[in-house]
Amino acid sequence: MRGALGGPRVLLRRLREVMAEPVHAQEKLDRIVIQIAANMVAEVCSVYVMRADGVLELYATEGLKREAVHLTAMRADEGLVGLIAREAEPLALSDAQSHPAFSYRPETGEEIYHAFLGVPILRAGNTLGVLVVQNRAHRLYSEEEIEALQTTAMVLAELIASGELQAIATPGADIAIRRPLHQRGVCLADGVGLGHVVLHEPRVVVKNLIAEDVQREVQRLEDAIAAMRAAIDKLIERGDVAHHGEHRDVLETVRMFANDQGWLRRIREAVLTGLTAEAAVERVQSDTRARLLRQTDPYLRERLHDLDDLANRLLHTLAGTDLATSREGLPENAILVARSMGPAALLDYDRAHLRGVILEEGGPTSHIAIVARALGIPAVGEVENITSLVEQGDAIIVDGGAGEVQIRPAPDVEAAYAEKARLRARRQEQYRSLRDVPSRTRDGLEIDLNINAGLIVDMPHLAETNAAGVGLFRTEIQFMVAQRLPTTGEQLALYASVLEAAQGLPVTFRTLDIGGDKVLPYMKQVEEENPALGWRAIRIGLDRPGLLRSQVRALLRAGAGHHLRIMFPMVATVEEFEMAKAIVAREEAHLARHGHPPPASLSLGVMVEVPSLLFHIDEVARRVDFMSVGSNDLMQFLFAADRENRQVSARFDPLCRPALRALKVVAERADALGCPVTVCGEIGGRPLEAMALIGLGYRRLSMSPSAVGPVKAMLLKLDAGAITAEMERLLAGDGDLSLRKALLRFAEANDVPL
């Protein structure tokens, strides 16, 4: 490197020594800029740190006027320093003052310096500051010098990220890396959790930056690339993708990038400049991330996730560490943060120490959302870039109900959420006091409140809530969390345990509802243009009867001596129910031939979630023993609006007239034909919607266990006759499409708690 004294290896060794010294943060930073200036043979070296308000403040300088430190500041759209921060790219100029972005600051005395070299201080692609060197002479800085300064900036990024410089920040001007952040996502599971960040796939912290033996580092990189590719190939070939919460297509994309020569070439070139393999990966990925974060093209932004995933895998391979964080020794009050996770991965963690989950991906009906609700863990999904905004151990708050995340919260914010958590706990205690109060409206109408379940860990909620039974047991969750297809014996063991835990209360088992967004990792995925309307649920069961027969056989054997309720999902025609019923009859005959005792009684039902059933509801009601309204799917099919697509999911309200009229048809015809009907979708667990359902004629609701208390508190104050009359009046009208405001007014006027 031209003009350098000893090269980057000597400089970095000296910087490490300075950083380890037990001195005041300002003195440490002052020594660092002196070392950099000397090594670069530069007359000026300055460090600008990004503040929480987006302003770059001069924190240390060698060569400029010392009184300018903490006095000189500029916006990210101002000056050469602002340009570097904004573009996240190095800038080398032989005559800085002739550049149109140059901003003269008289307090610095920099007007006598012409040559200028500045590089962004990056961490995970986020700009933490800018490092600058200057010389009086008009000169061109070499590529080697730019590379050396970029490597040095990685050390400064570590110092800034540690939070040590916060001690010398101007009062009220926090540095950006430690600033409090408020992020929004979508609610996955209700509740408030306060704790500290645990990254599901923690980043490797690179300490050793400079290679002692470049050729050895090149070989280490090549070996790690080969090992990473082999590991990805093995995952795809095995289909073992559930462990990391990723679907096959995600891994296929990662494999594609793992063979991308452009990305790998840049890493190899970085190693040849003298970096360790780990430092080269971190440097290239941080630069790539900085560029892609500034892109507006959604396709390019999406590729950022894939490259992050790949870089993380490569770093873990180089470091010889596990990709996922250890499940052992989970700290108290852990908030799990991940790009994505599968339900099996979440179940691996110690529930006693887990206070919340935050994901970059995953919507309200995703597999992990179902499991989080079952475990009672507050969860928020679709929080953009969350894994790069936090550090391991950061204080963090997750508000599942509001879909909000507070990162490194200020003391007053933390106190407010702590109070919110206490209020919620007191409210839950009040709901628990209603446990033994009959679920009866003010005018004496009995309403059955059931819980939705899918895991054996859900079953204690029956006793805790005093629910009437399990209105929906999602059998597919056992399949989703397994590494392979559960055997008939394993299914039998689960179903028998569930019935035993229910202690005589009714349990409605829904047969496998897979396909669409519920892809089992060990089953071949069928490519479909529209999976939600494709080969899923009962359609798979009827086309692959071996799968359905195995499950029905396990259910019948588990149900020996019990009242067994089996429900078929996604039924679109009467004929589909008859075909499923025939499979059950065949399995009953098989078990009888082999001497297995039958259930004490058997009821077969369907989920009303395909709109076609609305138009032959009488024929269905005459043939089945019961019906359950799956309001989640029914609503998305009625309005042709994918509930996982945020652009369209809010375009309709389940409390609008068309939706409520459809639900009323089901309730009225079921009642007329003596067919019991339950609502087991999300709307059954919301007090306002539950109030409307009672007004439509529904007397059985099934919901998440945490919703039983609020819904019961509502119905105890509700006059069923009054809400029935109000619903008749509202549905007959032609005013606002949504009845939500009108129903809120009714609740307020009648003192119904929501």
Description:
With 754 residues, this protein is α/β, with parallel strands linked by helices. The protein folds into four domains: 8-168, Beta-Lactamase (2-Layer Sandwich), CATH 3.30.450.40; 181-202 and 326-424, Glucose Oxidase, domain 1, CATH 3.50.30.10; 214-319, Orthogonal Bundle (Enzyme I, Chain A, domain 2), CATH 1.10.274; 435-524 and 532-750, TIM Barrel (Alpha-Beta Barrel). It has 26 helices and 22 strands. The strands form three sheets. It has an eight-stranded mixed β-sheet. An eight-stranded parallel β-sheet has the order 21-20-19-18-17-16-15-22. Helix 14 (460-465) links the parallel strand 15 and strand 16. It is elongated and about 95 Å long. The model is unreliable at 1-5 and 239-247 (pLDDT under 50).
What's a concise summary of this model?
By secondary structure, the chain is α/β, with parallel strands linked by helices. It is built from 26 helices and 22 strands. Strands 7-14-13-9-10-11-12-8 form an eight-stranded mixed beta sheet. Strands 21-20-19-18-17-16-15-22 form an eight-stranded parallel beta sheet. It has a six-stranded antiparallel beta sheet with strand order 3-2-1-6-5-4.
